[in-house]
């Protein structure tokens, strides 16, 4: 089997940004993403136990490195100043490169 190098952008932020981020993904023709509820502790406090209206989410998209970097920069410019937001890039290897 041949694996192909891609970059995964992981975003942890406030759930109320979900629709805005999904809209941004669609504008950029990103083919897929994963969103899950997130718990943890950071500069904006601790999120644990049962979720309520101010829950956090974790989003992951796998794209080429240039697209991941550009997307992360745009997300930071649009939302970074006003929302709890953490992003990081990871190099990943995928089997079906045409899906990303």
In short:
The protein has two helices and six strands; from the N terminus they run E-H-E-E-E-E-H-E. By secondary structure, it is of the alpha+beta class. The longest helix has 15 residues, at 65-79.
Question: Would you give an account of this structure?
Answer:
This protein has 100 residues and is of the alpha+beta class. Helix content is 25%, strand content 40%. It is built from 2 helices and 6 strands. The chain has a 4-stranded antiparallel sheet with strand order 2-5-1-6, covered by helices on one side. A two-stranded antiparallel sheet has the order 3-4. It is globular, with a radius of gyration of 14 Å.
Write out key terms for the chains shown.
single chain, about 100 residues, alpha+beta, 4-stranded antiparallel beta sheet, 6 strands
Mind sketching the topology for me?
Blueprint: E1 4-14, H1 18-27, E2 34-38, E3 40-42, E4 45-47, E5 56-63, H2 65-79, E6 85-94
Antiparallel strand pairs: 1-5, 1-6, 2-5, 3-4
Any idea what the shape is?
globular
What's the pLDDT, averaged over the residues?
91
- Strands of the largest sheet, in order across it? 2-5-1-6
Number of extended strands: 6
Helix content: 25-40%
Largest sheet: 4 strands, antiparallel
Instruction: Encode the helix/strand succession as letters.
Output: EHEEEEHE
Which residue ranges are poorly predicted, with pLDDT under 50 across at least 5 consecutive positions? none
Report, as a whole number of angstroms, the end-to-end distance: 17 Å
Cα radius of gyration in angstroms? 14 Å
**Pairing-aware structural class of the strands and helices?**
alpha+beta
In terms of DSSP E residues, the strand content is: 35-45%
Number of helices: 2
């Amino acid at each position: 089997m041949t694996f192909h190098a891609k970059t995964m952008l992981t975003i942890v932020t406030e759930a109320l940004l979900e629709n805005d981020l999904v809209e941004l993904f669609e504008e950029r023709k990103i083919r897929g993403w994963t969103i899950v509820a997130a718990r943890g502790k950071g500069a904006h406090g601790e999120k644990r136990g049962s979720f309520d209206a101010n829950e956090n989410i974790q989003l992951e998209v796998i794209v080429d490195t240039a697209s991941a970097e550009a997307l992360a920069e745009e997300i930071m410019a649009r939302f970074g100043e006003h929302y709890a937001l953490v992003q990081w890039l990871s190099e990943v290897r995928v089997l079906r490169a045409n899906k990303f």
